[in-house]
Amino acid sequence: MLLNLKPFNSFAITMMIGLSLLILFCYIFLDFPSATTSTIPISRSQSLSQLQLHPRSDPDPFQHLLGAFRRWDSQVGCFNFREKHVSLVEKGSNSSSLQVGNGREYQCSDLKMNHVGILIKGWTWIPDNLDNLYTCGCGLTCLWTKSSVLLDKPDALFFETTTPPSRRRSGEPLRVYMDLEAGRKRSGFEDIFISYHAKDDVQSTYAGGLYHNNRNYYLSPFKNNDTLVYWSSSRCLPQRNQLAKSILGLLSHHSFGKCLNNVGGLDMALSLYPQCAKDPNASPHWWDHLHCAMSHYKFVLAIENTYTDSYITEKLFYALDSGAVPIYFGAPNVRDFVPPHSIIDGAKFKSMEELATYVKALADDPIAYAEYHAWRRCGLLGNYGNTRAASLDTLPCRLCEAVSRRGGRDAQAF
């Protein structure tokens, strides 16, 4: 016997259509999660800093830095970055760790001389390319030279590795002494003392570009994934070596210096990155290809010889200039000298294991990694602008101003 199935079929079709419409309604208006989203959803109430500390759960070991920037632009952007650091935007940068920008500027009326000559004495780390005739603020001109022929009657004598004369008579040049080493010490015979610390007479940071300014500054837009960290050190201090070994043992790395070398010898960077050679026909120097080689890595390990306030050397600033993210161990007040969210301060982690875990997660999160470069792309330097302004690059004019304020040879002798 045949059954009449038409009513049943009509009812089933009606139910299927109704169910489909219900599912479509829920999908559109109730915002069901997509099948492509992370298995651990991020709450909308989480702050940007929380996202940085807890990178996404779906690893993306990116290689192209520009691609990471584009993703950061679309999901975060400069507006949000500036909002997070709104105090720097509204009030400007200020730090007692830096002389430039902290209210210690001087008036033109304080200058007693229109021209100052500085003669560099003895062997010094000061590069020859600093020798020049400078036009400084308030119409002051400044001759900085190592030649006594060019400057036979200097207003000040500059000493670094040699001790100034123990006595200065009236009418003689002022004595300037500089010590940029960690344990900075006055000679006891200087009239003006230069160091890396803001509380001394004249400050000079390591953030300038005049050291080895003829090197190859080509920066690679591609970052290594198989090898995350660059390190190079040829002064193998036991404490620094031990620290380096403890962190590098947990992360893939290349060590190019004499200490813990794992690339087969010195100057191997040019074998890995021949495009970094400044002159293929000349004998290479390590500094020629330094920035270029660093730029191929997502991270650069920077460890100071000594941990003391304001002692921040070229190790950190080279890493920043190369477009890598520094993993830094050193001055407790390092954040007073660098751009906002630009470095990984190793001292902030409870253990090397915790630090290594963070670095690995960051290397696989293009958006969180790009956040460490936002300062340079959004023009938010923070105190870094003042750090550069207080560097060796500007030392001639700033020292000449100090000599002029004291009157040079006419300054009272004690």
Brief characterization of the structure:
By secondary structure, the chain is α/β, with parallel strands linked by helices.
**What value does the Rg take, in angstroms?**
29 Å
- The CATH homologous superfamily of the largest domain is named Glycosyl transferase family 10, C-terminal domain
Regions with little confidence, pLDDT below 50 for 5+ residues = 1-9, 19-55
Structural class: alpha/beta
Q: What is the approximate shape?
A: globular
Compute the separation of the termini in Å: 128 Å
What would the CATH topology of the largest domain be?
Rossmann fold
Total count of helical runs of at least 4 residues: 14
| H and E string | HHHHHEEEEEEEEHEHHEHEEHHHHH
The overall number of domains is: 2
Which CATH class of the largest domain is shown? Alpha Beta
Level-2 CATH architecture of the largest domain: 3-Layer(aba) Sandwich
GO biological process, one term: Lewis a epitope biosynthetic process
Transmembrane segments: 12-30
Organism: Cynara cardunculus var. scolymus
Membrane topology: Single-pass type II membrane protein
